[in-house]
Specification:
Elements: H1 12-20, H2 25-33, E1 37-40, E2 46-51, E3 57-63, E4 71-77, H3 80-90
Antiparallel strand pairs: 1-2, 2-3, 3-4
């Protein structure tokens, strides 16, 4: 788990990739800053899920491998299964 949030790294490649999923940089930053769930994903990546201000539930994947900060690999709407995981982890009894 990340202790200090480093600034996200952006280039034209990851900007274009999130655009294909109709996700904005502002939404990615919001998920990264205020995740409901964070987890270790495939290939040593970190995943974050959060509901953003406009009501969308998004999942963001970051890589920390080859650069000095978190590189945005992907961002998209969370699947039903991913939403269920968030619900189970955050529901109160």
């Amino acid at each position: 788990m990340i202790k200090k949030k480093l600034p996200l790294l952006w280039d034209e490649g990851n900007r274009e990739h999130i655009r294909k999923h109709s996700v904005t940089i502002v939404e990615v930053e919001e998920v990264y800053t205020h995740p409901l769930i964070s987890f270790e994903a495939k290939k040593g990546r970190q995943g974050f899920i959060a509901k953003v201000k406009n009501g969308r539930m998004l999942i963001v994947f970051l890589s920390f491998e080859k650069q000095e900060g978190p590189y945005v690999v992907s961002a998209r709407d969370a699947s039903f299964k991913e939403r269920s995981i968030v619900y189970e982890a955050t529901k109160t009894h």
